[in-house]
Amino acid sequence: MESKHNDPNAAEAIATSNPTQSMSEAVEHRQRRERELASLYATARALTALGDVDTVLSSIVRHAHELVGTDVTYLSVFDDPHSQLTLRAVEGSLSPEFRTAHVPGNTGVGGRVVESQSAFWVRNYLTDDTLMHDAGFDAVLRAEGIVALLGVPLRDGTRVFGILYAADRVERPFDIDEVALLSAFADHAAIALQNARLYEESTQALKDLQDAYATIERSAAVHEALTRVVLTGGGAREVAHLLVASLGGRVAIYDRDDHLLVTTDNVRGKADAPSDGLSDALSDSRRTGRCATVQDGDAAPLPQFHSLVAILAGDTYLGAVVLSHLHTPSAVEQRTLERASQILGLMTLKQNAVVEAEERVRGELLTEVITTVRPIPAELAARAASRHVQVEMFTALVVAEGVSRRSLDLTRRLHTFSAEWSGLAGEYFGVATMLIVTDDLDGAAAAIQRRLRATLHEPILVCATPITGLNESLTRPFTIASRCLKILRASGIDDRGTTSAHLGLYATLFDPARAEDLTTLLADNIGELIDYDTRRGTDLVGTLAAYFENSANLTKTSKALHVHMNTLIKRLDRVSAVIGEQWQQPDNALSLQVAVRLHSLTSVLGSSPAN
């Protein structure tokens, strides 16, 4: 099959193919050329006034279709340089498949146009075996009925970025005028298309600039509002609602122990605490000081994103702020969260400074109240009253100790709920101490221990002792309560709330710093009985405890143990067989009773150190 491009010799041959052309035909040809040129220039002027790329593409194809007069006119552009031509605009097509056609850039007429960077045409595209064909595109052309095909390049300098096609549904050649007209039109269209692209890019750039300016203005307004919250004495709740108003979603703010301080409820679903589902994000944020975002895969049907920023002051962790939203935050929104965390850090430091100052004052006040001999001087009572503390009303002294927590942490927690007991909390000789008003010493000790344990998440020892002396200081109750804690620790108990009523005797008898004395007392007096009970599954130690509690009265002891008298006597005979008859002698009875009582007490409270 014959194929042509805009070769000068071919053009001359076409132009001179009829030497006998009449004068009237020449005049008609000249008039037609004038109309085409006028239409071309009018079209070029119209193209320069167009805006977006899609509008320009459609206009190019429409005007070319009107000027050239072929059955089908279409324009394809390269999505990537010379990889694939995608049809972007068409006039005159009949099949829907043709309107979405694409073809590899190195095949067919398009491949020849790219290779030569000039126009190229064929009489019959589907039967031309000199071209590289694409089976899929051939099927589309066959369905559309296209036979003759002309393509001219759209150039940007030396780069061909698209091709303008004119096609007919009959086999025919394209004359030099058609090639020249479509080529000239393509040159104008390429310029218009490039202008449209530049216009679109500049419009988008302007929009991006306007959006960025608006974002900066909004971000500055949020930052100003955050600063105003600090200056006006606001707190975490005001910061949370300010962030929601600016960013949407839901905000949760946590303290240094990952306890929830504030939350809003604008997004369905629950944000995990930093110590739970957001632990990895918290670690990243603590390391970098920046925002970290994770997706909650369980928030079906819509995914939920949690953006977390650690609240830091140097290397000190003060808490976290979490934004939960249905989309990932932009870079500006992340910076806003980071600014909010800095503001919250400043607020926390300010609050801590106030709290620490108050703690120092209350600690000094507590020390004075403990060390002052009763009755309390009027001046001290007045200073205490100014802090809503009635020192004359205190009925108990409480001390607390943790496994790894500093006494300062325990003191702060005691201070937070001291008002519930009309109390005064502080540090005394490095021990977390609180003076309280209560008529249920055991209940108060247990309640305070539970509160501390729930807050600090570790085993806590608490001991409460009554305040009874009216003409002495509170140093002795403090000493007894502190010793009771050490007795418990030495006995293997580290998580209990109790009172000195259960341990006061032992705190008086033993130096808690010498825990081995307790072990020696138990081993020397009832060690063999404990071993015997362990091996045989008996309870000789319990029998002795009941015997002593009932003043060595056999009748009362048998009733207390719910056993027959003969059974009790046999058990006591077995005790004598194990530890010797001397246990009933007055000189040995006291130490034996103390050992049995201490063993029974530690068995109830925890585990015996002798086991």
What's a concise summary of this model?
The chain has 19 helices and 17 strands. With 611 residues, the chain is of the alpha+beta class.
Q: What oligomeric state do the depicted chains represent?
A: single chain
Number of helices: 19
Strands side by side in the biggest sheet: 1-5-6-7-2-3-4
What is the makeup of the main sheet? Answer: 7 strands, antiparallel
Radius of gyration: 47 Å
- The portion of residues forming beta strands comes to 15-25%
Number of strands: 17
Mean pLDDT: 80
Q: Strands, helices and their partners?
A:
Blueprint: E1 3-5, H1 8-15, H2 23-48, H3 53-68, E2 72-78, E3 84-91, E4 102-104, H4 108-116, E5 120-122, H5 135-144, E6 148-156, E7 159-168, H6 176-231, H7 236-247, E8 250-254, E9 260-263, H8 279-288, E10 292-296, E11 304-313, E12 316-325, H9 331-371, H10 378-385, E13 396-402, H11 407-416, E14 424-428, E15 431-436, H12 441-456, E16 460-466, H13 475-490, E17 496-499, H14 500-509, H15 516-536, H16 540-549, H17 554-561, H18 565-579, H19 586-605
Parallel strand pairs: 16-17
Antiparallel strand pairs: 1-5, 2-3, 2-7, 3-4, 5-6, 6-7, 8-9, 8-12, 10-11, 11-12, 13-15, 13-16, 14-15
